[in-house]
């Protein structure tokens, strides 16, 4: 009887541990995707700022925005295989997905604007997406 | 006067030709993620390449034969085939990365997708190898590559906090999310980037192409001992620029276009233009060197006629092999694989292949049958053996670190 109790206890502990570590791994994946997005948005903002100050060329800026659009799209795709096993994680993933999507849209629209008009009129969308990503990043890092 | 000019030219081309896409990308990635805390890995790598490059240059100058020929003769075909297999595959991967690097750099000037530039870059490499004299090819690429000194200018113009950089150099810093395994992965990558095998094969075969003799030993040694460390300073400047501008903003470098941000911030369009020109020259020069190295290694192993000093018709297999390698590089890049990923993986695999490349060179450099009185001295052998231990450790650690860190993610 004692052996049975020990076995059940051990199995439960292992399951609990595995569940926790799976959740931690999923949170790590979300943080990684957000960090990539932060990097892409911050690079885009810096590139546009340098272009506006006439310190950088249009071709270099367009190339960077194209590269960053690709990076943020990769981050968005990386969310798909993350296994969701709790309502909390589901809600975190939805929030992360929304923030990254907003970032991707802003980077792409900035690049299109630069290609069409030779200038980016406003970086408000990028800044707002950046703040959204940063606040989620801090929140997830705290919860880890 | 002619000698002084030759010496200066040799050193300048060694500086300009030291950096390739592997150095550019890896140093910028490391600077943006770890600041200057991995500067020591660059220093260790540069000392290592100096030791073995001057050794293989001496072997070629004294014996009049390239290192690979001697390795096969001295160690037999079975051992040499291991060396050949590892070196050739790494070289092919590096060639692919360099052609991709040229295309990415041209994209920065034109904003036209790099995929369209890949075939053109490879054809340009082939044309230069086919038509241009060896010395002109080497000197022009090396001298235009000197534009990369702009990274050093940018670093000083950024007015860095020297205290903070000093702190980074002596203790491990990161953005807070980096693991210890990732730190060591990049240490191995930086070491592999500095000690890329093709540099040594190109150096020794180039010595035969240019007809070096014992009289040229001093110049060969000066090129390596002065030129390569100054090239290493440029590597540190790239990492420094990223550490000053990108690290505080938590921007991790994943693209060549991001490497240009600190340059534009420091020196505006003029410096940016200069650096992009330098990147084109450095990657193009390295693409020439890796293409030639592919031909050198195979041709020297099988005893085919080789070298640019012979008309192409007299070294047909050597030239055909280089064309095939360029086609493989184009085909690989046109699959859409990211040239930066190819670069990062190639520098790590370089580290894996290092013992197979450098141990045979050390053995041949100690054989009086080939080098007579010019064999390695005791001190040099002691340092070289110490380096063989480092090389072995880096080689063993490279693949596990690649897997554990997901290629440094």
* Biggest sheet details of chain A: none
Alpha-carbon Rg of chain A, integer: 21 Å
Query: On the 0-100 scale, what is the average pLDDT of chain A?
Result: 86
Radius of gyration of chain B: 20 Å
CATH class of chain A: Mainly Alpha
Helix tally of chain A equals 4
Query: How large a portion of the residues of chain B is in β-strands, by DSSP E?
Result: under 5%
Proportion of helical residues of chain A: over 70%
Form type of chain A: elongated
Q: According to CATH, what is the class of chain B?
A: Mainly Alpha
Distance between the termini of chain A: 38 Å
Biggest protein-protein interface? A-B, 25 and 25 residues
Structural class of chain A: mainly alpha
Count of beta strands of chain B: 0
Do you know the CATH topology of chain B?
Amino acid/polyamine transporter I
Q: What's the quick description here?
A:
The complex is a heterodimer of chains A (144) and B (409). Chain A is mostly helical. Chain A is 85% helix and 0% strand.
Topology summary:
The complex is a heterodimer of chains A (144) and B (409).
Chain A: H1 2-52, H2 58-77, H3 87-117, H4 124-143
Helix pairs in contact in A: 1-2, 1-3, 1-4, 2-3, 3-4
Chain B: H1 2-18, H2 21-34, H3 39-63, H4 67-110, H5 114-131, H6 134-145, H7 150-157, H8 162-170, H9 180-194, H10 197-209, H11 217-245, H12 256-259, H13 261-302, H14 316-334, H15 339-364, H16 368-371, H17 378-405
Please tell me about this protein's structure.
The complex is a heterodimer of chains A (144) and B (409). Chain A is mostly helical. Chain A has one domain: Four Helix Bundle (Hemerythrin (Met), subunit A) (Up-down Bundle), CATH 1.20.120. Chain A has four helices and no strands. Chain A has helices at 2-52, 58-77, 87-117, 124-143. In chain A, α3 (87-117) runs antiparallel to α4 (124-143). Chain A is elongated. Chain A starts with a helix and ends with a helix. Chain B is mainly alpha-helical and 409 residues long. Chain B has one domain (2-405): Amino acid/polyamine transporter I. In chain B, 80% of the residues lie in helices and 0% in strands. In chain B, α3 packs across α15, α4 runs antiparallel to α15 (339-364) and α5 (114-131) packs antiparallel against α14. The longest helix of chain B has 44 residues, at 67-110. The interface between A and B is medium-sized, with 25 and 25 residues.
């Amino acid at each position: 009887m004692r052996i049975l109790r020990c076995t059940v206890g051990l199995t439960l502990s292992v399951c609990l541990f595995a569940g926790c570590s799976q959740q931690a791994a999923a949170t790590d994946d979300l943080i990684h995707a957000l960090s990539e997005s932060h990097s892409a948005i911050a690079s885009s903002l810096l590139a546009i700022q340098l272009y506006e100050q006439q310190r950088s060329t249009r071709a270099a800026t367009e190339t960077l925005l194209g590269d960053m659009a690709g990076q943020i799209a990769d981050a968005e795709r990386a969310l798909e295989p993350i296994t969701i096993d709790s309502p909390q994680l589901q809600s975190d993933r939805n929030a992360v997905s929304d923030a990254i999507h907003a970032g991707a849209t802003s980077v792409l629209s900035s690049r299109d604007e630069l290609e069409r008009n030779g200038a980016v009129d406003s970086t408000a969308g990028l800044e707002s997406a950046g703040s959204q990503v940063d606040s989620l990043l801090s929140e997830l890092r705290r919860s880890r | 006067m002619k000698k002084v000019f030759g010496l200066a030219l040799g050193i300048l081309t060694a500086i300009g030709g030291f950096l390739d896409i592997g150095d550019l990308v890896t140093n910028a990635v490391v600077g943006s993620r770890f600041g200057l805390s991995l500067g020591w890995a660059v220093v260790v790598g540069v000392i290592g390449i100096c030791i073995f490059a001057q050794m293989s240059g001496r072997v070629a100058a004294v014996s009049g034969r390239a290192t690979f020929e001697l390795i096969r003769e001295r160690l037999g075909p079975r051992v040499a085939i291991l060396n050949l297999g590892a070196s050739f595959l790494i070289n092919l991967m590096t060639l692919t990365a360099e052609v991709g690097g040229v295309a990415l750099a041209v994209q920065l000037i034109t904003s036209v997708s790099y995929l369209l530039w890949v075939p053109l870059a490879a054809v340009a490499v082939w044309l230069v190898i086919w038509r241009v004299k060896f010395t002109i090819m080497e000197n022009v690429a090396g001298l235009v590559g000197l534009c990369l000194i702009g990274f050093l200018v940018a670093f000083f113009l950024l007015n860095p906090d020297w205290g903070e950089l000093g702190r980074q150099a002596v203790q491990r810093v990161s953005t807070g999310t980096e693991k210890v395994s990732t730190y060591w992965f990049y240490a191995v990558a930086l070491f592999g980037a500095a000690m890329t095998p093709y540099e040594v094969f190109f150096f020794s075969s180039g010595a035969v192409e240019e007809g070096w003799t014992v009289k040229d030993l001093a110049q060969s040694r000066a090129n390596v001992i002065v030129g390569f460390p100054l090239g290493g300073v440029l590597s540190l400047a790239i990492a420094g620029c990223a550490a000053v501008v990108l690290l505080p903003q938590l921007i991790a470098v994943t693209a060549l276009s991001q490497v240009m941000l600190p340059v534009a911030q420091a020196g505006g369009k003029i410096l940016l233009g200069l650096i992009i020109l330098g990147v084109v020259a450095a990657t193009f020069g390295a693409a020439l060197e890796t293409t030639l190295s592919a031909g050198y290694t195979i041709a020297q192993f099988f005893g085919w006629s080789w070298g640019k000093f012979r008309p192409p018709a007299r070294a047909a297999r050597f030239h055909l092999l280089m064309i095939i390698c360029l086609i493989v590089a184009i085909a690989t890049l046109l699959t859409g694989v990211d040239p930066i990923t190819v670069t990062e993986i190639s520098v790590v695999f370089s580290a894996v292949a290092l013992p197979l490349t450098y141990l045979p060179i050390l053995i041949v450099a100690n054989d009086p049958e080939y080098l007579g009185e010019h064999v390695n001295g005791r001190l040099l052998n002691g340092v070289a053996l110490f380096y063989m231990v480092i090389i072995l450790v880096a080689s063993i650690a490279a693949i596990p670190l690649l897997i554990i860190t997901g290629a440094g993610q």
